[in-house]
Amino acid sequence: MIRIDAHQHFWKLSRNDYDWLTPDLSSIYRDFLPTDLAPHLSRSGIDRTVVVQAAASDAETAFLLDQAWQSPFIAGVVGWTDLESQDAVTTIEALGQDRRLLGLRPMLQDLADDEWLLRPSIEPALAAMKTAKLRLDALLKPRHLPTLLRFLRRHPDLDVVIDHGAKPSIATAAIDEWASHMREIARTTNAFCKLSGLATEAGAGWNEAMLKPYVDVLMNTFGPRRLMWGSDWPVLHLAYHATTALSPYASWHDTALRLVDQLSDDERDCVFGGTAARFYGIA
Q1: Beta strand extents in the chain (DSSP E only)
Q2: Separation of alpha carbons 193 and 150, rounded Å
Q3: What is the side-by-side order of every strand in the sheet holding 4-8?
Q4: Given CA atoms 56, 62, 63, 64 in this order, what sign does their dihedral have?
Q5: Per-residue pLDDT tens for 152-174?
Q6: Residue 8: how many other CB atoms lie within 10 Å
């Protein structure tokens, strides 16, 4: 079975469009490119990756598509474009001609309007995405989940995956309300979910026991055939604590394997590759 990292990033600081990436984030304030990631993939037995946008610009999408065409291990790109732009439909139609573009990701967590997904102004762009068979990655936080549920019910024919398990507040051990929303979404919609980003939400002192209740919720609600593992490399460096000789990538990968060790081999194959291949259309 193919092994896929369903969520990783690249960036080059000189491009200067990463508004969130500032010098105080010292562990990730440098360039991260395919040559930096390749050794980690080899160590963890990962065959292909999905690279996801980290800047809200069309230049970011072009940059990542260029990286994908140059790096055979990149299966495809989740890019960005302004879904409210008057040119959104034309842009999406053009982007959809590139087979390496798998989807688009509005950075919902950074928008002032928590109900942005319900704006009529993005409906033409969403229709264009459906026609182009592009998926939507939902980057959001627990407060957005009621809106996401309404959105998913409104657009059952749009393929949507929730990034990072909707970023539960693991550091404060808040779980009940988040879990309730995630159960309802999993039960009543077709949404998928990424098993990624959880260590970052737990913070630098994270451990397996902290993550387990949240992983169990995701596994018991979405199940292995709607859940896909992602590294969130290199963002996961933010929560790295050097208590082992493992790299941040290997530490999260191996922890995730242990957290799902109750699964059958076939189910584990889904989480670590099969689900992402099916959702994103990766051969």
Answers
A1: 4-8, 48-52, 74-79, 101-104, 135-138, 160-162, 192-195, 227-229
A2: 17
A3: 4-8, 48-52, 74-79, 101-104, 135-138, 160-162, 192-195, 227-229
A4: positive
A5: 999 999 999 999 999 999 999 99
A6: 25
Q: How far apart are CA 83 and CA 70, in angstroms?
A: 27
Spatial distance between the Cα atoms of 43 and 56, rounded to a whole number of angstroms? 31
DSSP three-state, residue 178: helix
DSSP 50: E
What structural domains does the chain harbor? 4-280 (3.20.20.140)
Encoded amino acid at 181, one letter: H
Reference 279, options 69, 78, 95; nearest CA is 78
Cα pseudo-dihedral 110, 111, 112, 116, rounded to 10: -150
Q: Which of 195, 196, 201 is nearest to 239 (CA)?
A: 201
CA angle 281, 121, 79 (to 5 degrees): 35
Model confidence pTM above 0.90? yes
> Parallel, antiparallel, or unpaired: how do β-strands 4-8 and 74-79 relate?
unpaired
**103-150 tens-digit pLDDT:** 999 999 999 999 999 999 999 999 999 999 999 999 999 999 999 999
Strand 74-79 to strand 48-52: parallel, antiparallel, or no bridges (unpaired)?
parallel
| Contact predicate 8/231, CB 8 Å | yes
CA distance 159 to 147: 16
**Residue 59: DSSP 8-state:** H
